[in-house]
Amino acid sequence: SRKLNNEVKKRGGGFSKLCALSPQLQEFIGVTELARTEVVKQLWAYIREKDLQDPNNRRNIVCDERLRALFGVDTINMFQMNKALSKHIWPLDSDDVISVKSTPKEKQRKQERTEDLDEPTRKEKRQKGGKSGFLAPLQLSDALIKFLGTGESALPRSDVIKRMWDYIKEKNLQDPSDKRRIICDEKLKELFDVDTFNGFTVTKLLVVHFLKT
């Protein structure tokens, strides 16, 4: 019905719908929620910036340390990457997922959209210079500088997220009964002013510690 269609549009659907990201993908990109299209776009920005495409076959990606941590392989082609991302991208609310039997035309359109995700756009290929959003250094608050303890006053958001998760794992702060729940030690309590938080909200908690310049 028209009402249902309008509701779906409001929510955002398909590849443009906001999704929850796995802890590994959070570490890589530096946010907890992102549309699948944006995840793919940022991955390709990283791949091109680090020049990780195999010169003999541009469809193959030679993984650096960060991509290996994400995908668990040394090399991956663009089609495998799209499939591998599925386990790192989850619906924010399973109630929003509506199973509909696709018609052949819809399946074709879906396939075309998937192929569009795999291939970097011409516009993106033309972009040169400058760091992508999740690689650009951001000014850190005094509290975050103190927490990290390295003296660095500016870091990319993705690096901060990675270090945050490294700290959480090193200190074994994940709730054994629910790994998504983080039980703060004194340092995290001082930084975030909470006793516990959901792992998906770490980026939101960090927002106040990234200063606008």
Automatic annotation (TrEMBL):
InterPro entries: SWIB_domain, SWIB_MDM2_dom_sf, SWIB_MDM2_domain. It is found in: Nucleus. One of its GO terms (cellular component) is RNA polymerase I upstream activating factor complex. Residues 100-133 are annotated as: Disordered. GO terms for molecular function: RNA polymerase I general transcription initiation factor activity. It comes from the Eukaryota. Residues 103-122 have a biased composition (Basic and acidic residues). Residues 14-91, 133-212 form the DM2 domain. Keywords: Nucleus, Transcription, Transcription regulation. This is DM2 domain-containing protein. It comes from Citrus sinensis.
